[in-house]
Amino acid sequence: MQVWIYRMLSAAAAGGALRKGLSPWSALLTGLGTFAGINLLYALFWVAVAQTVDDTKPIQEQKKIYRLGVADIATTLCSYAHVHTEVSGEELLPKDKRFMLVCNHRSGFDPVVTASVLREYNLAFISKPSNLKIPLIAKLAYGDGFVPINRENDREALKSILQAADYLKRDLCSIAVYPEGTRSKTGELLPFHAGTFKIAQKAKAPVAVAAIQGTEAAAGNFPFRRTDVKLDILEVIPAEEVAAMNTQALAARCQDRIAEHLGAEAAE
């Protein structure tokens, strides 16, 4: 919707230029300039907001403006990339408590899509450190509760797990993780890192299991072709069951559930 408003304003500017007697080419340039200017102002606004984030230490509170920024930028990116997402099983997600969402990982668009379509659930993501260095997005994401994790350093990874669990405990945000640790280039599930499930156990939080498909085509389809994505919430494992299982068993249960679903979808 937001991008369509930008386009309508740009078209109105071009129409105004024509009515003033400017040539069609001048009117076109006026419209394009208006469109570029609106987008530049949009980006500059969030850049300014991001400068207020202190990314040198864990956040003590989540400001609504940072949460809005992440969700709004994600929705804008999906709109420009022509990503259309169908969500199923959303009714399973807890409405009155924080949870940890686990999902397979196919593309850099996975968190973008998820942050957009599940924006009301206030999800922050566990992410590799390089993602939290991307201009514009990085500081806002950190202020929203995103946690960088260095899987090459066990001690640093444990600090990140404890930080994410603390955010859940303190009701700052829900946490989303990709237990594969990296994107699958073939679509087949990679082994799940069981350690990430300590987040839910330490926070005494339920685990929502999800499967995503279609995001791997978004980069190739950009900017002209539509990409259809499916995000399916498969089940929510109650906090009591999460606490009663060891992390290996919990990881296996989630991986098997996602693999079963993706296999069934592929067979249709």
Assign the CATH topology of the largest domain: Glycerol-3-phosphate (1)-acyltransferase
- N-C termini distance: 33 Å
Q: Would you tell me the structural class of the helices and strands? A: alpha/beta
Shape: globular
What proportion of the residues form beta strands (DSSP E)?
A: 5-15%
Number of domains: 2
- What is the helix/strand order? HHHEEHEHEHEHEHEHH
Strands ordered across the widest β-sheet: 1-7-6-2-5-3-4
CATH class of the largest domain: Alpha Beta
Q: Can you summarize the main beta sheet?
A: 7 strands, mixed
Roughly how many Å is the radius of gyration? 21 Å
CATH superfamily of the largest domain: Glycerol-3-phosphate (1)-acyltransferase
CATH level-two architecture of the largest domain: 3-Layer(aba) Sandwich
Number of strands: 7
Question: What does this entry look like structurally?
Answer:
The protein is α/β, with parallel strands linked by helices. It has 2 domains: 1-51; 56-267, Glycerol-3-phosphate (1)-acyltransferase. Helices cover 49% and strands 15% of the residues. The chain contains 10 helices and 7 strands. A 7-stranded mixed beta sheet has the order 1-7-6-2-5-3-4, with helices on both faces. Helix 5 (137-144) links the parallel strand 3 and strand 4. Helix 2 crosses helix 5 and helix 3 packs across helix 5. The chain is globular, with a radius of gyration of 21 Å.
